[in-house]
Amino acid sequence: MLAEIKGLNEECGVFGVWGHPEAAQITYYGLHSLQHRGQEGTGIVVTDGKKLKGVKGEGLVTEVFSADAIQELEGTSAIGHVRYATAGGGGYDNVQPLLFQSQSGGLALCHNGNLTNATALKYQLEAQGSIFQTSSDTEVLAHLIKRGGVSSHKERVKNALSMVKGAYAFLIMTENEMMVALDPNGMRPLSLGKLGDAYVVTSETCAFDIVGAEFIRDVLPGELLIIDDNGFRSEMFAMASNIAMCTMEYVYFSRPDSNINGINVHTARKNLGKQLAVEVPIEADVVTGVPDSSISVAIGYAEATGIPYEMGLIKNKYVGRTFIQPSQSLREQGVKMKLSPVRGVVEGKRVVMVDDSIVRGTTSRRIVSMLKEAGATEVHVIISSPPIKNPCFYGIDTSTKEELIASDRSVEEIREIIGADTLTFLSVEGMVEAIGRKEDGEHRGQCLACFTGKYPTEIYPSTVHPYEKV
């Protein structure tokens, strides 16, 4: 699985379209372009103005949606989701969008991120009689909306959003409107576009290019967009505060052809490589990047240092998910199914190996070993982010310090574990400067919690009492 190649997995991606005669087909292509954000499950819910209908399943977009399944999803508006299981775990029930039917009409919703106070809210809701059908934190919002009394749907949504904490980009759909919400800290990417007369919303702008939509603007932190047949209107459900876009969107998660808050991801990664060249001058013969997110960084490093960039590692794009449980000895070799060193490039060479992060260290150790087995005389590992020392509670599957190799080890200790000749991480200051989130000369906020331990929101991890903050 992907987790065996890379140490980090982001929770999901969302896509929605309102007012298009081929809404399900458009959503299918949009989700396919977001597949890198989650491979464990996917779903689409459509509305024809009278009822909501959905199809979902475990697996990839191409596995879950046959041509017949898409044809059955008749409607002019849709929301869709790709998922990597973090909060709530996996399983069919947790695949989104979640779809609920009631006497007052249907409600579908999907979510990118993680609600840090979900456990506390579940305790409160269950005490008031709610029965949860999933273990996903996303379902909490549905219960809060439905328990919002006799006020309008919009007010119930705004009140519910004011109660949840953490990182979230929500798509909420009824039979006659779609609502789009981004958390007040702006921790997840979310953009609005136009496709003919239809409106499109997506986690990454690369999906606009795939479906032929035109980018309009980013959704603002604390903003609620209401989209229906009359167009869209904007309201603020909360004041934007302590803006903190996830730094790993630029470093690893997003596709290089996406723009996150106006910054092209490929360009940002090239700049990370150039900054590494300033901070980490190395005498070497060849530079190579670990596919895919580190290739842009490696190109930037090579351009800045003059050391030739080569494809020293090849990713096998045809290795899908495996349900075979190999022996430990075969599992240790499993990374070779996904990555292969190019002997003709690295043999007899001093190699600079560029990667975006080191989480648990297992994959880095195997790649360094493969390069040396292929004849590399030296392997110098440079990382385009600082050491990840702290868990993430916002939708990334690093929720405990114990699983992070850098939480209690020095850089030298990590170097010995992975077997590299040298190991260097990019500084926090250099990373922030290279990404370039500036406005009028001032840095716009980005979340650095996994590097610095300074969280932009209150944290209520499930490992402590649900009402106890940490």
Automatic annotation (TrEMBL):
Enzyme class: transferase
Keyword Magnesium: yes
PROSITE patterns named among the record's database cross-references: GATASE_TYPE_2
Coiled-coil regions listed in the entry: none
Cited HAMAP family: PurF (MF_01931)
PANTHER family: AMIDOPHOSPHORIBOSYLTRANSFERASE (PTHR11907)
Family: In the C-terminal section; belongs to the purine/pyrimidine phosphoribosyltransferase family.
Protein name: Amidophosphoribosyltransferase
Organism: Cytobacillus horneckiae
